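Q: Could you fold this chain for me?
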Amino acid sequence: MRYLFLTFIVVASCKNPASTTQSSVKIANGIQTDTVKYPSVVLVKTDSPTNETCSGTFIGSGVVLTAAHCLAAKQTNGGTPIDNPRVIVGGANGRTIKVKSVYFQKWIGRANMGINGYDIAILSVPEGSAPQVTPIRKTPISVGNAFTIVGFGYLSNKRTSSEAEYNDELNLYYGQNQVLAVTEHYIFSVGESSSGGSSPPGVNSTTAPGDSGGPLFIGQTIGGSVSWGPPYGLNSDTFKKIETSRPSVAPAPATIENDALYQLKQLPNLSSIQKRVENGEHLNISVHMNLTSPLYVKWLKSLKDQGLNIQFEGDAP
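A: Sure. Below is the predicted structure, expressed as structure tokens.
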């Protein structure tokens, strides 16, 4: 979660280990931590060609929530996983757990990095795997809600060839921010796109590569998961894309241009954010999946009814 970009980081949140040019990949203005403080947060890896490294959260003793775009495009919903998805507990060099099944609510392909209004995946692992479970929030998310983002990010602008060396650089970071806007699908937040801004460390943080699928903690619950955001902060090109974006039209797959960016276009305070960027502030907007939305709650409860031990706020342990 190295850069906590909380801006457009969803798409850019996953880290491709094969890349050698990724820079500043960490929670922006975040603070380094560990899985002792956040034991329910895990690293998610696959052997897919895109080789994403993402974050996830135990929402049940054998259930991990992450971003759908972190997984292979040809996964069978509820079937045997492909490309060896696995969960790493206790940090990058921790205990590896193989995923038994992968579940998507609605997977419409990896068009434009697979960002869409259903960027959530549930990973089934052996029961009892979780060192700690964070339940899903029941109370709807509201503008102004404070939250903490936690995730793994790549710390260097160079990718070493050694898996062990790469893992050594995958540290856990956290940062705080508050909800800028909420829609049926998304939670939006805006913050520093890099460290060294006007905010103290750990405040007004945003997300970056490696943070996709990571949690937005509100109190002792998870209210959202990191999905997408401009990987290098807001700039004039970003605002041009927002201005020209169009709403999704079924059955065309939702992409950056016709889904999340179009939602951003509706924000009443977008012009003030643009003005701040034009005046030299280094800002980013992060897009997160709204786990309290009835759209997702219904699906998650249906998985619970099918036998997945998903925990909601107020459920008995």
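A (continued): The mean pLDDT is 79.
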